[in-house]
Amino acid sequence: MALADPQGAAALGARAEQVAAVLTELSNPRRLMILCLLAEGERSVGALQDALGLGQSALSQHLARLRSAGMVATRRDGTSVHYRIADPETAKVMMALHDVFCGPESAA
């Protein structure tokens, strides 16, 4: 894509808007922690709640935002709801972030 031509600049502008929306969701520490856990695999709401120490209401609000942004998807198993990263691009970003910031060796 050539940035000098108007179509290239328009395409870059549209892409920049998409990336900015993803980064907005990632800018919240709680949502980032949720996505770090989901980068390791699907988790139930209860497992997320236990791992993060968040109240049910706060966790639900964060998950709703991530779901609304298309970053996570759900699967129901009886009375349990399981979350996973839904968007392949979000998965790529989270795997890169997970390697740098979310792993146990990054806590040192």
Describe what you observe in this structure.
The structure is a single chain. The protein has helices at residues 6-26, 29-39, 45-52, 56-68, 88-102; strands at residues 43-44, 72-77, 80-85. It has 108 residues and is of the alpha+beta class. It has a single domain, classed as Winged helix-like DNA-binding domain superfamily/Winged helix DNA-binding domain (Arc Repressor Mutant, subunit A, Orthogonal Bundle), CATH 1.10.10. The chain has a three-stranded antiparallel beta sheet with strand order 1-3-2. A hairpin with a 2-residue loop joins strand 2 (72-77) and strand 3 (80-85). Helix 2 (29-39) crosses helix 5. The longest helix is centred in the N-terminal third of the chain and has 21 residues, at 6-26. The model has no long low-confidence stretch (mean pLDDT 88).
